[in-house]
Design goal:
Layout: H1 2-16, E1 30-35, E2 38-43, E3 46-49, H2 50-63, H3 68-84
Antiparallel strand pairs: 1-2, 2-3
Length: 103
Amino acid sequence: MQGGRYVADMILRDLQGRPREPFSYRDKGQMATIGRSRAIASTGRMSFTGRMAWLIWLFVHVYYLVGFRNRALVLGQWAWNYLFSRRESRLITDPEWRFSTRS
């Protein structure tokens, strides 16, 4: 996203006859989710794990969506899935099962 904004600004500068400026990346931190209420988030000196990191991950992703409607729909879908979706283990129990690479 930072690169996209930079390129757009440089195109405008070219069109206006102004000199370009060097790109400067700002590290906003890292986030990863590994499942329901399990995540990590770190930025600067602050680090979070577990449910708090998962909530931060959720709200950051919703924040960066374009438009209120998209945000509301995604948040609603995620809430529905969180409350009513049961993701059980998917086990292969047939001893004769084989993975096929044929198309």
